[in-house]
Structure prediction request, 206 residues.
Amino acid sequence: MVQKSQKVTVFLDTTPNLLKHPAGRIMLRKNLAQSMHENIDLNIDKIVDRYAFLPALTVHYGEYCKLLSEARDLFVWGYFYSCVTMCGIVAERIVKDIFSRNLLVVAGAKITTPNQKAKKDLESFGAKEVCEFLIDSGVLNENLRSPLKSLGELRNKYAHAGGKKPEEDARKSIKHLHSIVDGTVSVFREFAVRHGKLVRKKPKTA
Prediction:
């Protein structure tokens, strides 16, 4: 019995195989560089516009900074699906770091902060519950509840491949993330610029 031939649609990328061989690497390196430059030239206006869309940053340095930079880069270069998820990851890293710093452990008569092993255990805590705890306990401002909730919902949708409007949702995610950044790790939460210098703000009095 002769079987009928069938058409199969595939996505094909054999370039990595060629690049694994020295001769192929030499041959394709120039072509790849040229292709990348052409792609940038073709999309430069959109790339610049997206960079201009980002808020300026002045934040305290921390583990989250590389993640924050990556989320912004993904947006600038147009990797919107990944950007949404990465924005959620950055927010989670920020709030879990704040949670860890503000948690005290009472062991007998001793009060300490969590040790490194205990901090690792905290990583298994759900981000949503950590956010709610920090807001309800007054560590984070109430006005962060909405952006944290909205970003968490977007992150979950895209992490589970349910996103339908990547660029639109990436823009929303960037806005939510920077609202969270402004309310948590921004230098200007504690300092103001006066006469060209950073000056610590006076605490508010009742």
Observations:
- The helical segments are 15-19, 22-53, 64-76, 80-102, 116-122, 127-136, 145-159, 166-182.
- The mean pLDDT is 90.
- The domain at 54-200 is CATH 1.20.120.330 (Four Helix Bundle (Hemerythrin (Met), subunit A)).
- The first strand starts at residue 105 and ends at 107.
